[in-house]
UniProtKB/TrEMBL annotation, chain A:
GO molecular function, one term: lyase activity
EC number(s) stated in the UniProt entry for this protein: 4.1.1.111
InterPro entries in the record: AsnC_trans_reg2 (IPR040523), HTH-Siroheme_Decarb (IPR050684), NirdL-like_HTH (IPR053953), WH-like_DNA-bd_sf (IPR036388)
Main EC class the enzyme belongs to: lyase
UniProt protein name: siroheme decarboxylase
Domain of life of the source: Bacteria
Similarity comment: family membership: Belongs to the Ahb/Nir family.
Domain Siroheme decarboxylase NirL-like HTH: 29-73
Boundaries of every Siroheme decarboxylase AsnC-like ligand binding domain copy: 91-163
Region feature Disordered, mapped onto this chain: 1-23
Keyword Lyase applies: yes
Automatic annotation (TrEMBL), chain B:
Pathway(s) annotated for this protein in UniProt: Porphyrin-containing compound metabolism
Database matches in PANTHER family: SIROHEME DECARBOXYLASE NIRL SUBUNIT, TRANSCRIPTIONAL REGULATOR, ASNC FAMILY
Catalytic activities: siroheme + 2 H(+) = 12,18-didecarboxysiroheme + 2 CO2
Assigned EC number: 4.1.1.111
Top-rank lineage group of the source organism: Bacteria
Annotated family: Belongs to the Ahb/Nir family.
Residues in Siroheme decarboxylase AsnC-like ligand binding domain copies: 72-163
Assigned keywords, A-Z: Lyase
Stated name of the protein: siroheme decarboxylase
GO MF term set: lyase activity
């Protein structure tokens, strides 16, 4: 990563940052979350516009959002990029990680900036993660790097076809 | 913070800077797009126009909040996987993707002999039992409409989010 890019991304090491939510959202938070899963307005003062539709002030919206992010009730807030439309690629990947090696492998995998999400699942393939790279060939390169780092096989499950789904979850 | 001190960026370069500046999230300030403009050495109107262009052509899927599924009550996150006859897998996928409780649905390659599944459908629910009921609903639908097409299925529940940052280019 170049210095300019690093300065722009604000990325914290995810492996050191817990992702479990620290609290439950209250009723107002839930209304806000539901409203914000739709289209956040691309207006000069979007938080004021969202607040107006919910009976909240601009600063209440901003403070609640900040608290929801700080408490990991929300995992992010902003544009969700479709990297494939920018010439890049996403790929689901899985590994069978021995329990004794679990934390070492979590740290190694999560330290890769290409790893966008990572979940533990109940199966012999117990670690499932998504790689996102700026160029399609980056997927195989990243998988090989993770294999070299962990001495485990990375199974790639590229998307062959995406079926239509509605992405929102009611809070 | 200005990224560059040179002449105005090309549209493609500006878009890339906007991606880098917002992939970690939108600034939580009253005029977030003005804040982004400052970071990418542009102006607010141009940044908003570029974001709308990226929304229109699909480079941005949507703008808004990504909730932690667990925090908003969806504690059971089951990745259902299906071994569906290749001749009907796309028809099955369209049907399953259309179900309200399925949040992602993809066709992916099998990894024989250990992984015979070619259709993935993510199911979110408030409990494991509820998720399993929904998986049973999917199975019943497939059997009713595509008799004999599904040979085997499994559900991989997640037991922990290890990382969820979304994509990070620039690495």
């Amino acid at each position: 990563m170049s210095e300019t890019d690093a300065a722009l991304t604000d990325q914290k090491p995810a492996s050191r940052r817990g992702v479990a939510a620290r609290r439950e959202p209250d009723a107002v938070d839930r209304r806000l979350i539901n409203a914000l899963q739709g289209d956040f307005p691309v207006l000069e003062a979007p938080f004021a516009a969202v607040g107006a539709s919910l009976g909240l002030t601009e600063s209440e919206v901003i403070q609640r959002l900040q608290a929801l992010l700080d408490d990991h009730v929300l995992t992010r807030f902003g544009p969700m990029f479709q990297i494939e439309r920018m010439g890049g690629a996403f790929c689901l990947a899985a590994m069978a990680v021995p329990e004794a090696d679990w934390q070492r492998v979590v740290d190694a995998v999560n330290a890769c900036p290409e790893v966008a999400h990572n979940y533990r699942r109940e199966h012999a393939l117990n670690m499932w993660f998504v790689l996102a790279t700026e160029a399609p060939e980056g997927i195989a390169a990243c998988a090989r790097r993770i294999e070299a780092l962990t001495a485990l096989t990375v199974h790639l499950f590229p998307k062959e076809r995406e079926y239509f789904v509605e992405m929102k979850l009611e809070a | 913070m200005n990224l560059v001190d040179t002449a105005p960026a090309s549209e493609a370069e500006l878009d890339r800077r906007i991606v880098l500046a917002t992939q970690g999230g939108l600034p939580l300030v009253p005029r977030p797009y003005a804040a982004v403009a400052e970071r990418v050495a542009s102006d607010e109107a141009t940044v908003r126009a570029r974001l709308l262009a990226m929304l229109a052509d699909g480079r941005i899927r949507r703008m808004g909040a990504v909730p932690n599924h667990y925090a908003i009550g969806y504690t059971a996150n089951g990745m259902s996987v299906w071994d569906v006859d290749d001749s009907v897998v796309d028809a099955v996928g369209e049907r399953v993707g259309g179900l309200a409780f399925v949040t992602h649905c993809y066709r992916r390659p099998r990894h024989l002999p250990d992984w015979p599944y070619n259709l993935f459908a993510m199911v979110h629910a408030a409990s494991r039992e509820a998720a399993l009921e929904r998986v049973a609903e999917i199975a019943a639908l497939i059997e009713r409409e595509f008799q004999g097409a599904c040979r085997r299925r499994d559900v991989l529940f997640s037991t922990g989010i290890l990382k969820k940052t979304g994509l990070r280019i620039g690495g």
